[in-house]
Design brief:
By secondary structure, the chain is an alpha/beta fold. It folds into 2 domains: 163 residues, 3-Layer(aba) Sandwich (Rossmann fold), CATH 3.40.50; 207 residues, 3-Layer(aba) Sandwich (Rossmann fold), CATH 3.40.50. The protein is 33% helix and 28% strand. The chain is built from 12 helices and 16 strands.
Amino acid sequence: MFSAADIDTGTRFLLKVFSQQWDAAEQRGLPRAQRVLDAGCGVGVIGICVAGTLAQGAQFHVHCQDRDELAKIITEYNAEKNSIPPELLSAHTEPLLGSPKAPRWDIILSNVPAKARKPVLADFILRSAALLNPCGWALIVVVNPLADFFRAQIPQLRYEERGPGHTVFMYGPAAHEGLWGGTQGRRGFLGEYPAYHRLRGDYTMEGITYTLDTIQGLGDFDCPHGTVQVAAKLTTRFIREKAGFARSLLIYEPGQGHFPKWLKEYQAQDQKLDGSSGSFRWVFSSRNILALEASRYNMYPETVLTIPGIDLSINQESLLSALEPGSQGYDLIVGFPQFVAQTDRLIPLWEGIRGLLAQGGVVIIALPASEAERFDRKKPPGFNRLGDCKRHGFRALGYVFP
């Protein structure tokens, strides 16, 4: 996660300026802010500092949001470590500024992610200004190379302070109609957040061509990742050899949606996939809410259940609850795990697979070749390897649990 080793200088600078502006508002006798949004909370530093020092009155609440489920869990953990109760601070997995539209915020704080592309950053300014209460204000910190860009986007600039590497901007509310719903003729997530749309393209894997809309903030917008390509190749082998084996399908870390969209098109062209004209029960799980939104958008009109989750073992209960009543597990699990540095989640990954896979079910895991080798060595008793596909430094492994 961002700045995992220490509190970054941008956040420190933002908190310094925020403290000064809070004191100035107190001296002027302005009403105390009650509803605070920490947008892109990371491990929760900003929200916890605000909740831990400035809370006053029963209505005061800090709403922390991040697109990463791990950020949500760690923010909750850090709040508990600092004796901050859930009624004072809550954490949520949401798109940036993507909390329900009905609330308006007294204060919005954000260390704006520099890696976001300019359409998303411009949308952030307009959207945040529109979400402020009439007396509300936003305070953001950005890296200095982007300061001129942000300054040009802000409609109601109230204050600016420049430091060695970062600039803090303070701005007030501004009405911006038409930000939400039905824009550019798109539905769902991209109708709500059109600035996230990157491009629409045609892609081909294993002789199947499909169309995909890619979004900002995720990779694989120009071509499917190498892990996706080897997983598709191995999947076609299973389809040919084991017709009709899958009814319920779990895709772990689906990214932009290349694999499920390809499989949907493959299914449409080869009814041997499930032995009838039926379809999968699609369930997607990811740490990244943007991946779930992109994949669900691209699978329309299929019904897709999306479950934010850290991994298959920690979130096993919620993933099992997504199955149809009476089902004992998933017939097919396809995973593209992204391991956290300095952690070893291989054994828990296998434990999650075993707890989620139906008897006779198939699991396909695609990884960089070096990680795939380690994953295979941790295979618990009872799993039989059915297939192995290597290409350009990536490897997909397939197993069955009899």
